[in-house]
Design goal:
Strand order of the largest sheet: 8-9-11-18-16
Number of helices: 10
Number of strands: 18
Low-confidence stretches: 1-6, 24-36, 400-404, 410-424
Order of helices and strands: HHEEEEEHEHHEEHEHEHHEEEEEEEEH
Shape: globular
Oligomer: single chain
Mean pLDDT: 83
Largest sheet: 5 strands, mixed, barrel
Helix content: 10-25%
Radius of gyration: 32 Å
Distance between the termini: 128 Å
Strand content: 25-35%
Length: 424
């Protein structure tokens, strides 16, 4: 025995003695980790816990129009109304950018009125510029909803119906109602939020502005994301796309920008910038300025601060009280004083001219283009500035200010001269 022990090193001898003293169990493995017991009431040692890692939400392909759009990709699809209504027409393009990260579905629509092509370019530009690999959520862009009107340069459908008075539509109704139903079921039902782009109608131009029902809390919160953009309270008319979408729980607004039948680069750029701000506000895109060091100069800080979005609630149309040639003397977006000349109407037969004066101070948020007009024609749309809180309070009143005329087939109602609407 001594010979055997004499041939062992000291560490080996210590291990041998320890094994002899305690004995080997019938099953040596698995060996319990020191400090961990079978008692579930005792937490394991802190040092042995794995760090908690928050896994990102799983993003699945989006099923739309019988196709699957996988995360991190963009796919251009085609939409046609059901029942073979538009087989002879071009299909409506539907551009789907499915983000690589989870997030909401924002829908951008335009061309509901076929002659309002500013919105067509706005939605086309945004839809194809978004990088889906950096997007959280999905952007569905439909630049031309009313292909009938677009191909003919017309506001209306072939039967002279207004598609934006037909939503959500029915399967058994008129052509307009069936088209509206198909679009609502195939596209709108996928949306979490919706922006519908329009322009002024009947040779009028609108300052870029958001029209929204400020009495709806979800819609009100939605309007806060557009940044320094004019916001007007307007409950909308029955049959409008945004009204129908909001009614089924999809916050929706109308974005007005410019005039019909023409492309206006400044208005288009302003609308695109507003949607870019919205995407950042919704955390669908990262803020491009987030990584920049903040300016240290006080003046620079003041310049960097975003301008608060003004909300115009109390708006009114100023009308021509005589017929003739309308020549404007103000620009869209210009601030005017009470009594300031907005334009003049010249009778080309008698050579008599009458001025149209501003009844109140405000900002020109819509105006007719220079043209021949009849008495009572709504020539200028003035808005007076207010706070968000006051706008919401006034919008909730049962007898609040006259709502904004929006995409109407009819001109705003005439007013009495005694109301002070016109001073000529």
């Amino acid at each position: 025995m001594r010979d055997v022990l004499g041939g062992m090193t000291r560490p080996a001898l210590a291990l041998a003695l320890l094994a002899a003293a305690f004995g080997a169990a019938a099953q040596d493995f698995p060996v319990d980790i020191p400090g961990i017991t079978a008692d579930p009431s005792r937490p394991p040692p802190v040092g042995l816990l794995l760090p908690e890692v928050e896994l990102p939400d799983l993003v699945t392909p989006l099923a739309i129009l019988d196709r699957l759009v996988v995360p991190g990709t963009r796919l251009q699809l085609e939409w046609r109304p059901r029942g073979g209504i538009s087989n002879a027409e071009i299909a409506s393009p539907v551009v789907v950018a499915r983000g690589a990260m989870a997030g909401p579905v924002l829908c951008l629509t335009a061309g509901v009125h076929g002659d309002e092509i500013n919105g067509v370019e706005i939605v086309r530009r945004i839809s194809h510029a978004i990088d889906p690999t950096r997007l959280s959520g999905t952007v569905i862009g439909v630049p031309i909803v009313n292909v009938f009107g677009y191909s003919r340069g017309s506001r209306y459908l072939p039967d002279r119906r207004d598609l934006n008075r037909s939503f959500p539509g029915t399967r058994q109704g008129s052509i307009a109602s069936r088209i509206a139903d198909g679009f609502f079921q195939d596209i709108v039902k996928h949306c979490d939020m919706l922006v519908d782009f329009h322009t002024g109608s009947f040779a009028r131009s609108n300052l870029p502005q958001v029209r929204a029902d400020l009495t709806n809390p979800d819609v009100l919160e939605f309007t806060r994301g557009f940044g320094a953009t004019v916001v007007l309270h307007s409950p909308g008319n029955r049959g409008m796309l945004r009204v129908a979408a909001t009614a089924v729980g999809i916050p929706a607004v109308t974005f007005e920008a410019g005039a019909p039948t023409r492309l206006e680069p400044a208005e288009i750029a302003e609308a695109v910038a507003a949607i870019d701000r919205l995407l950042v506000k919704l955390e669908m895109l990262e803020d491009p300025d987030a990584g920049l060091a903040p300016p240290t100069d006080v003046a620079a800080v003041a310049l960097e601060a975003p301008e608060p979005a003004p909300i115009f609630l109390d708006s009114r149309w100023v009308r021509a009280n005589s017929g003739g040639l309308l020549i404007s003397q103000v620009a869209l977006g210009q601030r005017v004083l009470a009594g300031q000349k907005l334009g003049r109407v010249i009778n080309p037969v008698t050579n008599v001219q009458r001025y149209i004066l501003a009844p109140v101070a405000g900002r020109v948020i819509g105006m007719a283009q220079n043209q021949a007009v009849l008495p009572g024609y709504a020539a200028f749309h003035l808005g007076t500035e207010t706070s968000e809180q006051q706008a919401v309070s006034e919008a909730a009143k049962p007898h609040g200010p006259e709502v904004v005329a929006e995409d109407s087939d009819e001109r705003p109602d005439s007013v009495k001269e005694s109301d002070g609407e016109d001073f000529e």
